[in-house]
Amino acid sequence: MAATRIVVPPRARKGQVVEIKTIINHPMETGFRHDNVGRPIPRNIITRFTCTYAGEQVFAMDLFTGVAANPFVAFTTVATETGDLVFEWTDQHGAVTREVVRLTVT
Amino acid sequence: MRGGRRLPLAAAGGLLLLALGAPLARGTEPPRGIPLSELRSGREFVSPETRDQQDDLAVNPGMLWVAQGEKLWHEPAGAGGRACASCHGEPGSLAGVAARYPRYDAALGRVLNLEARIRHCRSERQGADPLAYESQPLLALTALVAYQSRGAPLAVSIDGPARPAFEAGRSLYHERQGQLDLACADCHERFWGRRLRAERISQGHPNGFPAYRLEWQTLGSLHRRLRACFQGVRAEPFAAGSPELVSLELYLAWRAQGLPVETPAVRR
Amino acid sequence: MHQGSSQPSRRAVIAGAGAVLLVPLAPGAARATPESMAAAMDEALGRDAPLRPGRVRIELPELAENGNAVPLKITVESPMTQSDHVASIYVFSELNPVSNVVRFHLGPRSGVARVQTSIRLAGTQRITAVARMSDGSLWSAAASVVVTQAACLDDT
Fold this sequence. Notes:
The complex is a heterotrimer. Chain A is mostly beta strands. Chain A has no helices and eight strands. Chain A has a single domain, classed as Immunoglobulin-like. In chain A, the strands form two sheets. Chain A has a five-stranded mixed sheet with strand order 2-8-7-4-5, with no helix packed on it. In chain A, strands 1-3-6 form a three-stranded antiparallel sheet, with no helix packed on it. The relative contact order of chain A is 0.32. In chain B, 40% of the residues lie in helices and 7% in strands. In chain B, β1 and β2 form a beta hairpin. Chain B is globular. Chain C is mostly beta strands. Helix content of chain C is 13%, strand content 37%. In chain C, a hairpin with a 4-residue loop joins β9 and β10. Chain C is globular. Classes of the chains: A mainly beta, B mainly alpha, C mainly beta. At the A-C interface, β5 and β6 of A face β7 and β8 of C.
């Protein structure tokens, strides 16, 4: 599992739009670079990022080689109920990094 | 920013640089090429967006390494199964320490930078693999420790036994290198603030390292950055962790005295 | 930061840019062309689907600090209700080796249509963002960024 950082407000009022920021450690190797003896470095990227909130998907992102290394994304969701935010990053080989953060809604 | 007519300034600048690089009488306070009041951190030479990225710890990519360092800090390692935490408690106990590095170690009889100190602890105190320079774990631990001093002003000692290393660093800083025949001082003391292609030359301070460099797309050490500078003037770079680069690092830290530690900085 | 101008029909883009880009590429160069961007847009949005200028706001620096990581923020005017919301935002490059840069999928639970990320830019170019609304309509904007090479060689 790659290192991640996720920022979610500690608590939110029901109906409030909260901003979520995430970043994951990943080289997002494009496949267009070469090593110092001229061999191509194979492509290795995260291709999909999703966020579900209390079981329902609220955000998804398709990543291509044009996303910068250590991909950062900020998005919003409406605070509806106290529940788990589940974040999943899937790479081109199908490997998944998963993080769970609880959002408390008052 | 520098202005003025080129030729007399260039001549005066050259003489001044010679003077700054000349050997000093023992015990004298070294002259400063850039007065303390005119010091500008590298953060002032990057775009506002890059500064914002550095300041917002939620989006600062360097914090990924700090987080990783925190994990490693608590992991037992080596023969005795001791973690950094076993002796040092929480990382916060090292607040302010990185601001005083590099420093002379009496027991070892040489100046150590932070990476060397960590490697020494790993091998001698933990009986663990000291971790290679520029490896992810060493970068993570160095970033973690330096981060504990974020905001603290750089304050290294160049007194007594540290002095020879300081002098060696100062001398190297003023020595012309490589095919382009440029000294560090030529760009970073004489021409800081001026444009080199599309970029503004910074004063070349070390206070943000280890730093996330956009050009590298990853976090890297000061010695990696210094090696890149040597390559930039087409000179043979010294090895990471070498006495030459540690001496240069000591000089740079003294030169940046008072600037706050910004690790992990975001630089271009 | 500056706001992107709205984009005319895709046909006009290709016709205008095609005249400029008939230069042989160096062997091994990985470059998109307006044709490959149009193909990517066709595949993502539907062949020759009409794009309306407006409602999409792109924030990109005018001069990129470094082409490896350029901060991008996209906001779309929308009430984000069940019946009227942004379903997806597509970002295309006219110069990168891969024309698709990133896609975001939102919905009424997003609250507002606002996303941020960092993208790679292979050189000075125009970036196009297209929002697909819940009613199927497509709205677009474009923004230009100047990307320069680093001043000093770094081979570390």
